[in-house]
């Protein structure tokens, strides 16, 4: 029995999901063209209960697991991957709080209250947002009496203009910086409301795809943060969840590209060669989708061997997503690259799969190191003459 069958909040949200996906798809081209924030789409996701599915049952939520989160993000990505990307970080934030709480309870209660009043998007500022390589924080925090002041810049923050809360990793400066509880890292997590005084959004989003994420720079000009809004240092987002949830968005893009190509081919005479090419798309897409779902279910069951496999799944899913869209273009010819059709947008959106998160060579290198640590059976005999 699935989680959706057990919890009424999940059942209701999944019942509304198809209509939300249709609404997102209907407005995706407009938002892509204008690079404007998709307020209507985010509102629809919120009203359907999809934005808070991962809130723990102890907080009154559905406690959605990773498998259902992957399913939701794949469907939202099929409608509009920008909306899916914006919703993903909020879903993952609630999921992390459900499993390894790092928000202080009173502050998290404020986030939950905001989520009742309307869409309460959470932004994770820094490489933690997509599991990318560690980088020096773009913000610093200095003591101001009992509280803190944040100064600095965070580049390309998804949904910057509409964030209710921001999780900001800041480097501590000043004589008493260690009192924030950062330990040896020299940094701490600060939970900042999006409309806090001193928070400024600087327009300048000119990326190739996912344009409706409206990922602008955020400036912090002496932003006040209370001592009660400093989070316990911990992983901001679970790497296993990141590895499976975010690629699900890109597979949603690939699914939309596949659907468009199928519809186009149905209107024209086809032959065996085209059937086989379409079959390759089907096999590649289904394999990646099933891999993400199966591994997510293992993580939900607490399988201790599952987390170390998520990096490999991320590689497979990313390659499949990009490859499927490229093959859809090859089948469609010049029409696939015309702005008159959505496939051209899918091409630009799916390319961001390669630019987000850990680079493929880093994931491959880690897989190689793990193989060497675990071994692969008896030591082979020496090579003659070696």
From TrEMBL:
- Describe the location of the Acyl-CoA oxidase/dehydrogenase middle domain by residue ranges: 134-223
Listed cofactors = FAD
- Keyword Flavoprotein set for record: yes
- Stated EC number for the protein is 1.-.-.-
| Keyword vocabulary terms for this entry | FAD, Flavoprotein, Oxidoreductase
Give the EC class as a word: oxidoreductase
Matching Pfam families: Acyl-CoA_dh_1, Acyl-CoA_dh_M, Acyl-CoA_dh_N
Q: Does the keyword Oxidoreductase apply?
A: yes
Superkingdom of source: Bacteria
Q: Where is the Acyl-CoA dehydrogenase/oxidase N-terminal domain?
A: 24-85
GO molecular function term, any single one = oxidoreductase activity
What InterPro entries does the entry give?
A: Acyl-CoA_Oxase/DH_mid-dom, Acyl-CoA_Oxase/DH_mid-dom_sf, AcylCo_DH-like_C, AcylCo_DH/oxidase_C, AcylCoA_DH/ox_N, AcylCoA_DH/ox_N_sf, AcylCoA_DH/oxidase_NM_dom_sf
Limits of the Acyl-CoA dehydrogenase/oxidase C-terminal domain: 248-353
Family to which the UniProt record says this protein belongs:
Belongs to the acyl-CoA dehydrogenase family.
What name does this protein carry?
Answer: Acyl-CoA dehydrogenase family protein
């Amino acid at each position: 029995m699935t989680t959706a069958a057990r919890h009424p909040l999940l059942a209701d949200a999944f019942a509304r999901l198809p209509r939300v996906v249709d609404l997102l798809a209907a407005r995706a081209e407009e938002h892509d063209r204008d690079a404007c924030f998709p307020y209507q789409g985010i509102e629809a996701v919120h009203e359907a209960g999809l934005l808070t599915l991962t809130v723990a049952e102890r907080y009154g939520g559905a406690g959605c697991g990773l498998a259902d989160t992957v399913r939701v993000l794949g469907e939202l990505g099929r409608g509009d991957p920008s909306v899916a990307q914006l919703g993903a970080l909020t879903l993952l934030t609630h999921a992390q709080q459900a499993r390894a709480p790092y928000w202080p309870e009173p502050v998290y209660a404020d986030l939950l209250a905001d989520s009742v009043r309307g869409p309460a998007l959470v932004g994770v500022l820094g490489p933690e947002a997509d599991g990318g390589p560690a980088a020096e924080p773009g913000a610093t925090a200095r003591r101001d009496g009992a509280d803190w002041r944040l100064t600095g810049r965070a580049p390309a923050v998804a949904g910057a203009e509409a964030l209710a809360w921001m999780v900001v990793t800041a480097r501590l400066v000043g004589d008493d910086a260690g009192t924030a509880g950062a330990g040896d890292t020299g940094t701490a997590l600060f939970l900042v409301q999006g409309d806090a005084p001193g928070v400024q959004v600087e327009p300048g989003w000119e990326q190739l795809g996912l344009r409706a994420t409206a990922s602008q720079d955020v400036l912090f000009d002496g932003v006040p943060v209370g001592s009660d809004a400093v989070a316990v240092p911990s992983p901001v987002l679970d790497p296993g969840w990141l590895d499976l949830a975010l690629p699900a968005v890109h597979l949603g893009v690939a699914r939309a590209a596949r659907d468009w190509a199928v519809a186009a081919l149905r209107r024209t005479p086809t032959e065996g060669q085209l059937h086989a090419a379409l079959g390759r798309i089907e096999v590649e897409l289904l394999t990646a989708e099933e891999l993400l779902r199966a591994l997510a279910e293992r993580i939900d069951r607490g399988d201790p061997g599952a987390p170390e496999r998520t990096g490999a799944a991320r590689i497979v899913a990313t390659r499949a997503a990009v490859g499927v869209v490229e093959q859809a273009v090859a089948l469609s010819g010049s029409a696939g690259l015309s702005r008159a059709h959505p496939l051209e947008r899918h091409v630009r959106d799916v390319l961001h799969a390669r630019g987000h998160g850990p680079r493929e060579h880093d994931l491959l290198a880690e897989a190689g190191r793990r193989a060497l640590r675990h071994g692969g059976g008896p030591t082979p005999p020496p090579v003659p003459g070696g």
